[in-house]
Amino acid sequence: MPRLRYIDDSEMTPQIREMVASAERTGAPDPRVVRIMSRSKVGIAWIECWNKVLYEGVLPHKMKEMCRIKISVAHQCGYCSTVRSKVAQAEGLTEEIIDDVLNDYQNSNKLTAREKAALKYAELFKSGEHAIDRDEVYRELQETFTDEEIIELGQLCAQTDGVGKLAKSFNVISWEQACELNPRLGTAPAQAAE
Q: Which of 41, 91, 144, 164 has minimal CB crowding within 10 Å?
């Protein structure tokens, strides 16, 4: 049971109705969290920002979705770990690929070198700010990504990690419920409790 209530249909403005409809079309963010966040002006601003970070920019959406899921599973957010972007699925992201993302992406033959580099950065990002605050991390990123792409990837990871923790605390779906919905999640490595 969510800790905050969903917005009632009678409370929705046309803007919020469109945000919920967009979430239903794309699959991410999930309409349930949109219905919670949209009860606040700042929450609405976040929804707009998140949609731009996730769906706009220069990096492929599929790559961003893999990083989002990698970070979400690491902090065991039941909600974020079970949400799937329909757009990324249309771009070829399958549960089989997600299994590789979560378990042994470095040795996957299903992932490109750029996807592996992005996932490595997401993994470092999730492990703590000191892990990415090193010259060698950026030298390595610059071998694969432009500065514009690095900024976009960093923004995606920051939003996923920070707001993901908030979404987890809403208790839309517990980790246990998520593992019941998708038993493969229970075998994925998780980050140590923070």
A: 41
Q: Shortest CA distance to 70 belongs to which of 52, 57, 88, 56?
A: 88
pLDDT above 70: percentage of residues in the chain? 96
The pLDDT value given to residue 194: 42
Instruction: Give the Cα separation of 61 and 85 in Å (integer).
Output: 9
Distance of alpha carbon 167 from alpha carbon 99, whole angstroms: 23
Q: What's the whole-model pTM score?
A: 0.90
DSSP class of residue 30 equals -
Model confidence pLDDT, tens digit, residues 126-158: 998 899 999 999 999 999 999 999 999 999 999
Virtual CA dihedral for 121, 154, 22, 2, nearest 10 degrees? 80
For 11, what's the count of Cα atoms within 13 Å in the CB-facing half-sphere? 10
In a 10 Å sphere around its CB, with 0-12 CB exposed, 13-18 middle and 19+ buried, how is residue 189 labelled?
exposed
CA distance 181 to 92: 21
Return the pLDDT at 29: 92
Residue scoring higher pLDDT (150 or 82): 150
Same domain, 43 and 73: no
38 falls within a domain: yes
Cis status, amide bond into 29, omega within 30 of 0: yes
Using alpha carbons, list the distances in angstroms from residue 113 to 1, 5, 64, 107, 148: 40, 42, 14, 10, 18
